[in-house]
Predict the structure.
Amino acid sequence: MRDVALQALQAERLASPPAVPVRGRLVIAGATGVLGSEVLQRLVGLGQFAATQVLAREPITAGLRRVGTTLVPSDDPADWPAGSADTGVVLFEPPRLFHERERALWTPLPEQLPALAQWMRRSGVRTLALVLPHAQGRLPEALKRGLATLDEQAVAALGFDCLVIVRAAQKPPGPGPRGWLPGLARWMLSVAKYMVPAGEQPVRSPKMAEFVAAALQFAPPGIHIAAPDLVWSAAQGDVRQAVRQWLLPA
C-alpha cells in the first residue's frame, strides 16, 4: 500500500490542473488488481473529484489524500444502505492475493452488476463507468458496440445521466500446472494467440486507466460503449485526444 500511496501522491503533484471543475464524490467498486490500482491512482492524481470512496469488506487505511473506504455489510449490494456519491466506477478484476490491502477490498462478481448499479443509483450516482473484460472471439461483432447482456440492459434502464461501458480484452490466463504434459498442451494452444486481431489484444493497464479517466471527463449525457478495437486504437497514440474525438466528434 505504501508504494501505491507514493505513486498516487507523485502523480497528484505532477499532474496539470484539471481541464474541468472539481466534481463531487467518486465511489469505486473493484479497485483491485493492476488495473484497479492504476484507475485509482489516475483518478486521484488528476484531482477531478473532491473525495473518493473505495468499497471494502474490512477496515483499512487508504493513505491517499481525499481517499477513504466504505465498508460493505454483506456481499449482496441489495442489502446495503444508500451511500453518497455522484460518480461510480466498477471493475471486475480479481484481487492479487499477495497484496494484503487488496484482500480487504470488496470485489464485485459479474452477476452482481445489476444489484450494484441499483445501489449506486440509490446513493445518488448520476455518472457510471463500467470496465467489462471479455474473452477474445467470444462476443459477436455487433454486441461489442452495444448492450451485450440482459444485465447491461437492466443497468442502462436505471436512468443514469451518463453510462460509459468500456470493453477490454482479457489478458491470457497465467501459467497452469507444471509438468511436461500441461506444458505441451499450453504450447499447442498458444498458436491461437496469433489468430487474434490486433484490435482484440489486451491493452496495458496504464493506458486502460487513462482511457477510463478521459471518458469520465469528456462523456456527455447518454450511453456510450467503447468496443475493444476502439480502446486498442486509442492506446496506440494520444489516449485523451482519441477519447475526446470519440465522445465529442466535431
The mean pLDDT is 80. The chain has one domain: 2-247. The chain is about 40% helix and 20% strand.
